[in-house]
Amino acid sequence: MSVDRLFAEVAKKGPICVGLDPHMDHMPEEVRGLSIEETIFTFNKKIIDATKDLVAVYKPQAAYYEAYGLEGVRAYQRTLEHLRKEGALIINDVKRGDISSTAGMYAKAYFEGDMEGDLMTLNPYMGMDSIEPYMEYVEKHDKGLFVIVKTSNPGSRDIECLEVDGEPLYIHVGRALEKLHGNTIGKSGYRNIGFVIGATNTVEGEGAFIRKAFPDTFFLVPGYGAQGGKGADALTLLQDGNGGVVNSSRGIIRAFEKSSKPFDEAARDAVLSMKEDLRVGL
Amino acid sequence: MSVDRLFAEVAKKGPICVGLDPHMDHMPEEVRGLSIEETIFTFNKKIIDATKDLVAVYKPQAAYYEAYGLEGVRAYQRTLEHLRKEGALIINDVKRGDISSTAGMYAKAYFEGDMEGDLMTLNPYMGMDSIEPYMEYVEKHDKGLFVIVKTSNPGSRDIECLEVDGEPLYIHVGRALEKLHGNTIGKSGYRNIGFVIGATNTVEGEGAFIRKAFPDTFFLVPGYGAQGGKGADALTLLQDGNGGVVNSSRGIIRAFEKSSKPFDEAARDAVLSMKEDLRVGL
Description:
The structure is a homodimer.
Chain A: H1 2-13, E1 16-20, H2 36-51, E2 57-60, H3 63-66, H4 69-85, E3 89-96, H5 100-111, E4 119-122, H6 135-140, E5 144-150, E6 163-164, E7 167-168, H7 169-181, E8 193-197, H8 206-213, E9 219-221, H9 231-236, E10 244-248, H10 250-253, H11 263-277
């Protein structure tokens, strides 16, 4: 099960997820002057090579590749190929959500072929039959899911936090996902459908409330760093330093903007600082 | 405004949206034996050329291209290029939804460059700050949005239909979108943020209820035909034959499976039958 593999990586290296969100307007000098495809791929490859012994999983965000058209998508494919070659775990952060026949095609897109990763993110708005088609890959092909449940942006209060039967909507969404998954819990003690739970709180104590509500669910935690989430907030969502991974994108891949070192070394330093902030033994 | 352009196309040609969802397992003999890229592009091009005088807008569904990796994405780009060359309107059916910085990149991806279309579909689960970044393209670059509100799949009851303050969640979502948009209504009388509203009803009379709740919103109506939605259900969501487009994918692009004619002629016949079913003057 992919969540078991992720759990093992976290146990070895700590709960760091590096978001590979390359932006052509924020590239270091060392990779300027190349084609878009070469710029993005070279940038990602150097970041990966400089951090892979410290990082549990990499999370390329599809938007940052799709925005650059065919060149961007080729850079995405080459980044995934490099990650697979290095044996690194991959979360394809695509947040897809669609009816079942279409969902089957998205599963094929991100669990097979050019864009194959180990886990992918999904959006649950359309309901459980938009999640179910991915389960075959989870159950038979060692893949895993992170479904967005409570996100890190201020707009999360607009829909995710609406009150349904006296509880926030996101609690209902989480329970429906638990039900979909049944009782198959991996060796790690965690389920194969993980949740995306933001490091930022909409109300005081929300992180602890969510962690308690879903004790055997693995969390992907965005919102740390540039989005305002603190190490202490993120830690509330872990359990004994595992049970989740904390993502940082800009804080790591753009660390060179505040450093005199080459961008890949600056990224490595930023991962080390993040580990310290999360109080994980190095 | 894109919705005004769509309204004008519907006034001229009727409310038909053709879903371009090519599947390599369901290709006609005429295009077999080519590469994946050539198969998909040739198939789409012939369907477009055979139907363009009858169709208001084409809706390629990104999953059916992404599933075939880089070749599929190249076929997607070439399909969009052909549609733009023919002056046909395009809905990029990508249902993206993410935090604002990422949303800005998705807007760039589908409103500019290789994958440029006229409108795109979005998922509102993460809240209004995940929709807002697209508004610049809507207001300044003549682009338009269709946000999923109440979909056509059985799972729509899982989240979209949950009761919030005595009303279905999708009504709250629709109202939040109206508020985001403000009072800028186009010459057509419709707003530039359209909604995706399925042709199938979760409860009796739902279509009429939704149409009445959002009288100045343009609807993209999936679920007709292969998904079980009837012409009468779809018509409930229109107003005087406009104010929405009804999508059919399999019913048109796979019409050749039930016909002795070449696949493009079968597609044209299927569009004509659909117009009759929707009682639109030819």
